[in-house]
Write a structure and sequence with these properties.
With about 160 residues, this protein is α+β, with helices and mostly antiparallel strands. The chain has one domain. About 15% of the residues lie in helices and about 30% in strands. It is built from 3 helices and 5 strands; from the N terminus they run αααβββββ. Strands 1, 2, 3, 4 and 5 form a 5-stranded antiparallel sheet that branches. A hairpin with an 8-residue loop joins strand 3 and strand 4. The protein is elongated. It starts with a helix and ends in a 16-residue tail after the last strand.
């Protein structure tokens, strides 16, 4: 064996690693900076939107727009509700009069004098039903306005 072969056998792994690390490295090409492409669809109306100013008065209802007169229920109002109810000891579906007993931001509680049922197959009668304020199954009854008696004072 020649001296170079013997020298190679005696070289440890650590020394080989050092030798490899010292070897010059040639770069084939210069690194190119890659810019990421982000596709974003933007509605121009959304970005120009200004914040909505809130009024200091707190409304009774939580709506995007002001509620109409048909949705302004108050405690004590007489309303008609479309539901299953008892009439002459028979269960029928139709409009029945009730009285508003509680009003919430989103719900209205109506109390009845006869038994009413929550849904079609509901077997348990009840006297109070809750409805959403905007439900098509509840409507105000055009009631008689109370005649206010004024003291008539004739002019002399």
């Amino acid at each position: 064996m020649t001296k170079t072969k013997l020298a190679e056998k005696k070289v440890t792994k650590v020394e080989k690693a050092v030798v490899i690390a010292e070897a010059p490295v040639k770069l084939a090409a210069k690194p190119v900076k890659v810019t990421p492409i982000i596709k974003r669809i933007v509605n121009p109306l959304v970005e120009r939107r200004r914040p909505i100013k809130r009024s200091t008065r707190v409304s009774q209802f939580a709506f995007m727009k002001a509620p109409g007169i048909e949705h302004a229920f108050e405690v004590g109002d007489t309303v008609e509700v479309f539901c299953d109810h008892e009439k002459n000891r028979e269960r029928i579906r139709g409009w029945i009069k009730g009285i508003v007993v509680q009003v919430d931001n989103k719900m209205v509680a109506v109390q009845f004098r006869s038994n009413v049922y929550l849904t079609d197959g509901w077997m348990v009668p009840d006297r109070i039903l809750w409805y959403p304020v905007t439900s098509e199954h509840i409507r105000a009854v055009p009631g008689k306005k109370a005649i206010v008696k004024k003291d008539f004072i004739p002019e002399y």
